[in-house]
Every structure is written in C-alpha cells, then in structure tokens.
Amino acid sequence: MNIGEIARRSGVSRSTVSYALSGKRAVSEATRQRIQAVIDELGYRPNAAARALKEGRTRTLGLVVPPTRRRLTFMQLEFVASVMEAADRADLDLLLSPSRDDHDRSFERIVGGRRVDGLILMEIRLDDPRVTRLQGLRLPFVTIGRTARPQGTCWIDVDYATLIDRCVNHLADLGHRHIALINRSAELIASGYGPAHRAREGFADAVARRGVEGVEFCCADDAAAGETCVQEILRAHPEVTAITTINEAALPGIQRALEDAGLNIPARFSVAGVAARYWAEQFHPQLTAADVPAVDMGATAVDFLVERVTDPDAPPRQHLFVPPISLRNSTGPAPAPR
Amino acid sequence: MNIGEIARRSGVSRSTVSYALSGKRAVSEATRQRIQAVIDELGYRPNAAARALKEGRTRTLGLVVPPTRRRLTFMQLEFVASVMEAADRADLDLLLSPSRDDHDRSFERIVGGRRVDGLILMEIRLDDPRVTRLQGLRLPFVTIGRTARPQGTCWIDVDYATLIDRCVNHLADLGHRHIALINRSAELIASGYGPAHRAREGFADAVARRGVEGVEFCCADDAAAGETCVQEILRAHPEVTAITTINEAALPGIQRALEDAGLNIPARFSVAGVAARYWAEQFHPQLTAADVPAVDMGATAVDFLVERVTDPDAPPRQHLFVPPISLRNSTGPAPAPR
DNA sequence: GAAAGTAGGCGAAACGATTCGACTCGCTAC
DNA sequence: GTAGCGAGTCGAATCGTTTCGCCTACTTTC
C-alpha cells in the first residue's frame, strides 16, 4: 500500500501522486480528484519512515522526562499532558524519553538515531550535561528551567524566586513575623536543581527585606515527609506562624500535621505556596498559592521548539512565567501572640 | 555522518560496516576493531528512519492515552510511567498519542504512517472503535481493559468485579449492613467504560450474596464531586456506615465530607477502595484498598506487546490482575446502631 | 506564425540503512 | 590435483518517499 500502488491504480506516475498530495507543483483538477478517490478508497497514508529519510526531518518532537523512580509531581504531569496535546495540535508526534543524563539509553537512541526534530528537556539542573551535548549536536531544544548560564539557550521557566518573595510579602502583610520555607529535598538541592535554589534565594532576600525571621527546611517529595517536616518545624521553631512552600507533594502531610497539632488553618496558622491550580484546590482549606500555569507552559514550550526547528538561526526565545497568587482560604492574619 | 562515511574512513564497503555492527555475517577481528574505532571517534549511530524503512519495523511502541481534558488518575499516571520505563528497558522508543477515537489526528498519524510496531491502548470501552480498526490493519496491540468480547485480543485488566466483591465482603465481615458504592462518573458509564460497569456488577452480586443493602452512586473524578457525593449519600441514606469505591480522584473529597460530618474513620465510618498504593497511603487514615499494581501492569503490557510484535501468529495473551486488599486504617467494625 | 511561456506530467536520482548474491582467498579432503 | 567449503569482503538492489530536470502540449504575444 505505497505511493506506487496509488500511482498505478490512478494511471499516473509516482511523482504526480506526490505533487497532488503536497501541492508543490500544479496538478490538473481532474487527475487530482482521481488520485484522491483512489487514496480514499485504499486508505493510503505516506510511510513516515520513508518521508523522514527523504526530507531529513521526522515531524516528531521528543520530551525528556525524569525517570520515575522519583515520582512526577502534579505540575510535571500537567506539563507532560499539555505538551502532548500541543504537539498533537501542531501535527507532530511526541516521543517520550525517561532520561536524566546524556548517556541514558533512551536519550542516546533518540538523539543519536536522529529520531526527533527537537527536544523538550524537563528537570534541568543548573549544570546539565544534556544541554551541552545537544548544543554540540545543533539539535534544537527547549529547556523547562534554566541552567546557571542560560543566555544562549531557549528556555521557559517559573520565577520561583519572585513567587516565594510574593508569598513572603503576602504573609508579612498579614502580620506574620516568623515564616518557614519548606523547600524540595536536600538531594535535589545538592544536585543543582534550579527551582529549589532560586526559591531559597528568593526566600532569603524577601525575609531580609521585610525584616521578618525566616527558616528553611528541606523536605522529600511526599506527604509523610511533609508531615514530619512540619512537626520538626513546630518543635524547633514554635514561634513560626506561617509556612510557604514549593513542595507540592508534601502539601497533604503539611496540612495533616498542622491539623494534628490543633493549628486551625487559617485562624492559627497560614500556608501559602506554589502549586498546580488543581492541586491547590484539592486542599482543605483551599490553598492560597501561585498557580503554576503548566498548560500554558507546555504550549509555549512546543511553540518555541517548533519555531526553532523551522528556523534554527532565529535568536533563542525565553520566557519566565510569574503567575499571580490566587488568594484562597489558607492564609489569614497572624494570630495574636500568646 | 552516515554509514558510507564510516566505510570510507575505515577503508571497507558499507555492507562490511553494517555486518560488523549487526554481527549477521563474519567480519575479521582486525577490520571490526578498525571500524569500531572510527565509529567511536565520530560518534556514529545508524539513522533510525533509514533503518526503519529498510527493515520494515520502527523499534517504536505507541501508547494511546485518553486526551487530558479529563485528568489522568494516579493509577493511569503510574501506568504511563511504567510503560515508559519498560519500553526503555526493551530498547524501544515510546510514542504518545492522545486519542479517544480511531479518527483522532494523532491516532491516524501514528497508525496510518506506520510509525509504530505495536500499540498499547488505555481506557478501553466495552465497544471500542480503535480495537476494530487495529484488528483490520493487523497491527499488534494490547489493550488495558477489555472490550465486551475480548476473546481474540491481547489484553490485561484489573478484575474490578472481584475487587469490589472483596471490599464488600470485608466490610460485611466487619458487620456493616448498609454499604454504598461510589462509582466513576455517569458519562463514563454511559460511554461503556468497562471498569465502572464491572464494579457495578461486582457490587450488585456481592451485596446480594451477603444479604446486605447496597446503594450505588456515580461521581465525577475530582475531590469536589466526591465531597458532594458523600453529602448526598449521608442525606439520602443515613443508615449507610461504609463506602467502597473505585474512584481514586474522589477520595480526598470523600474523606473531607466524612470528617465535616463528624464521622470519624474508622470508628464511625469505614472506607475501602481500589486505588494506586501511593495514593492510598496519602490518605488519613491510610486507606484499606486493593492496590492496583500499575507498575507490573505497564511491564506486562510491554511484554505482551513485544511478544506479539515478534510473533504475530502466537495466540494472544491475556492477564487479569486481582491484587489483594491491603488492610490499612480506614476500615473497622460497624458502629453500634444508635 | 515563430518565440516564449506555462500547465501538467514523467523518469530518475537521491535519502541511509540492510541484505542477497557473488567473488576471492586459503584450507581440507579425497 | 581438484573439488568443496567457510571466512571475509564487496557491489548492487531495495525499502517508500520527495524533488529536480526534462519533455510535451497548449496559450499567449508580438
């Protein structure tokens, strides 16, 4: 069921069929219709491999996701889903690669075998081997998150520093004087994970500027860790009346620990974070949070990448998302000191 | 950077390079090493499109996931992740397609363009157009879930009927006499979604056999729906003392509504469900549930599919997962009637 | 009415791999 | 001494497209 068969049955040459399909040269309306009729009847679609070979492009994008030993966060999940749909809208296929490093098997397969026209990389570290690898290969890519020197590359990112700054300001405005930051895990920070570093910096700056006292805690990405982390905070820093966090996965545990400690939210304790909107709304009370626009981000990443694929010499585009804080029900005035 | 370049630089023909790489014919150790040295130096990897064209197979699997307007459940997410890793282990690439129907663009692209050697289909309906389409095309596939007549096809599924049966039995053993089933959404049931239908049947059979009273409620896949659903149950059926559910996403709302109604779990009310283990453990108290083995399922699906791709004439394999119920802290003896 | 242009079509050469048949050695067996 | 065989290699065909150059008619233009 190839183009030759279509050509034979419609009594024209293979090239005519090709031109009828692509429209790159004139084909008389009569033959075009004849060809189309045969194609419809036989349900022909050009073979992707042959086309890729000839054209030198695969019409496929790659999405490099972190291997799931560490579970995906809701934000990441939403992002993956939105990339999938954006690629679909652009009539591009999406190849998934679970890789953290440039030597991982699937990364090697996809990049070495030239299976994709461009790549979207998630979970970028400040110093990321995949980025340097791809730069050497002149394979277009967009990173979600920035490396330490992001000037020449194409990226989108969430401005965690500013978001945490806003959370701190919001809490300080409400009268809180002792605020804790629940960051991501210590390993993640040690591995140079940008958002965790930038949240840390934003927090330090904000508490300094507002003259409030801030303490930072690292916390693994799950509810149990969130629970023990809050217990630890309450024990070591009983003066703390508000928490801000970028650790989505810890939220259920944070909430539970506060509840168990009898600290009603928001009357006795406030929580303000950065999270996917859906996730923030699952909480009780619903979480005052900067809603990370994962869906927009996915669409933007695909847009940037497509642009880069079609015109590799265009200056790389970059976008920093700074979503506003949605005021919900988890923050309130600081309780009167006892 | 193609095989011809490698051949030129190592002073042999292209075919010799190919044989040196594949080992399908003898190549003297000396030339093999010479070729390998050139390859290592230049970092050559065979072009996937050319290879696919010649070999007639793409070394790629397709995973058809439901479009995300309706959000993926945790179980589905875990499944996708595990398929991704299993494919990677088998040295196969994974193409993602967000399609519900056989006419969806990406389904058409992937299937029509012969981009994959086989497909894994999620969210199978009892009567699914994609299945009939693929059967006509002789393209290997594995379904997650079964159609109404699954005899000739290759599938894996979770035995929701039996699991709900076990939940009901567990609750009945604890003395509960009025049990509610919180099923998935009414639309899903109307569209012929197997798990929801089979849960319904399993529930009906089990309550009949145990002689307890059962009521079934449909519920959309989110916390808010779960909350109102429980409120409705408590209003319309105040005699109910236990809930069983396959609706993962509703769990936070179920829990919250019971809490707000002052019904302590498990002292005053019991909940037993079917859920991803991680999700079940996030609850408070942790949920007594049949832990759906999403990771095993992903690996099995890939195994079955690979087997079918390599030997299309082998009888199609099938597997019904019946995970045991993990007793956690959300079920207890029925409260004494007031 | 010849030159020039255009619409419509065809054939063949790519793209980069794999694989089949054929060829040349050197060795063994009779 | 020659037939047979296996190891090692090469050339050419092939997979299914796209695209370039060329060719033929037919129209237009002066």
UniProtKB/TrEMBL annotation, chains A, B:
Q: Which InterPro entries match?
A: HTH_LacI, LacI/GalR-like_sensor, Lambda_DNA-bd_dom_sf, Peripla_BP_I
Task: Provide the organism lineage as a comma list.
Answer: Bacteria, Bacillati, Actinomycetota, Actinomycetes, Streptosporangiales
The domain of life is Bacteria
The UniProt keyword set, sorted, is:
DNA-binding, Transcription, Transcription regulation
Matches recorded under CDD domains: HTH_LacI
Q: Which residues form the HTH lacI-type domain?
A: 1-55
- Which terms does the record give in the GO molecular function aspect? DNA binding
Question: Is Nucleotide-binding there in the keyword field?
Answer: no
Q: Where is the signal peptide?
A: none
Any coiled-coil regions, as ranges: none
Q: What is this protein called?
A: LacI family DNA-binding transcriptional regulator
